[in-house]
Design a protein that fits this description.
This protein has 552 residues and is of the alpha/beta class. Helix content is 32%, strand content 22%. The chain has 17 helices and 24 strands.
Length: 552
Amino acid sequence: MAFTKIANGTVYDPANGIDGQIRDLWISDGKIVASPTDPSVVPERIYDLTGLIVMPGGVDMHAHIAGPKVNVARKLRPEDHRDSRPVPRTRLLRSGTLGSTPTTFTTGYLYAGLGYTTVFDAAIPPLGARHTHEEFHDTPVIDKGFFVLVGNNHYLMDQLAKGESERVRAFCGWLLHATRGYALKVVNPGGVEVWKQGKNGMTGLDDTVPGFDVSPRQIVSSVARTADELKLPHSAHIHCNQLGMPGNWTTTLETMQAIEGFRGHFTHIQFHSYGGGPGDQGTFRSQVPELAEWVNGHPNITCDVGQVMFGDTTSMTGDGPLGYFLHRVTGRKWFNGDTECEGGCGIVPIEYKEKSFVNALQWAIGLEWYLLVRDPWRVAMSTDHPNGGSFLAYPEICALLMSRDYRREVLKRLPTKLRDRCALPELDREYTLNEIAIITRAGPARILGLCNKGHLGIGADADIAVYTPSDDRKAMFELPRYVFKGGKLIVESGEIRLAPYGPTLVSRPGYDEGAIPHIRQWFEAAYTLQFDNYAVGDEYLTHGETVVPLRD
């Protein structure tokens, strides 16, 4: 058995209670293993990491990196790629472009360059699953998976309205198998379908979806229950109604209350935490303290932030009406797409400006979430890439969280009325390195149910990020000294040394196969393709797949 030894590093491994201790790590066959008891065992390679910081590889649990929506965004914004430095082809690397929606190859390289080794795409319509797996084929280094959209699925809403909860459960289980997906996702439940019918689409929680006699409340509570009944590794992944609308915090709170008794992950929560009235900047304010209080008292709820960062980016969302709203607000070009009986999307270029009171408040609201949720295990780092900003902004967010003074320096540049509309100026909390390791690695892995990710214990995947300590936290996290994937050195001082391809992460719940004839009959009466051509075959898994165990 061949061994690699990671020696003398200062290890931050929160999942195993290790907070800045000098440790050795032993690696064999891509896994962390126990130190050999035989003193004659000599590792093939030793990396002396004296004075360096060692963490598990990063886990991004909510981003948009593949699939039809992302590909359309790349085509919609040629200027975004022209204006960025291209990634040249070498003997090792494939060429690509940067911008807010990097190309597939570049996406893998950039994540690896930050020390991230696992990434999930957050919103894939089942009909887009093949496309997504094809793009995963071209995304190097990282392990990846995706969440399957069900919150506006016609079959689910039809059966839910008829009280057929067992069929709903069987359908969701079958859908995860058919798409080779990982978790169930709801986006503006019911509201996207209302939009597709030519109406506003910004529905309230108890509005009725025309033609289906079902409410968003029923949809989200049913999906949360179904995810738990199927024992999925990850809970229902919830994008609430009224995203981005002033006053939407009450809908968010009601949605949290609606899943009482079940797990639920509330995503890009920053965009759902707004007080005030529609179109009235005079009342627009943060409501994070009220929502964070609820989260702090309800351990069934987790969230990621969707931090807004200043600069140019691209809004892309499965929430079609929100895309149109942003088009009207910004006056910029806009794409809207519908996916048969499953969902839709909206894409709009957007720029977040320091001088804009609304954008500045969005920035502050995101930071409030990190600082007001007491348990860092229940709040994960995200920018909802690229919606709030690029994942390349993660080092900057780390710096903001670790320094109260740095936050206040930025606040000085922002509109003064911001101080009366949020709690951020009064928040003194500063994150430790251990807490950073939680929200970027250990926490997302635990929330996702990834038992082999986000930690450095025996049996874990040997995905490791090594950083050089620095008071400049942004610079420190931007340029890892080393990154290991499966125990192999892939990045050294910013240079890609090896570009392997990680597997797709999937869940395989049990379900009642007796429901398939009914699903088939309904499907073939509603879709433009045959039922037998719907499921993703083995030929799409060119780099393999890892089936993540279900929860007990």
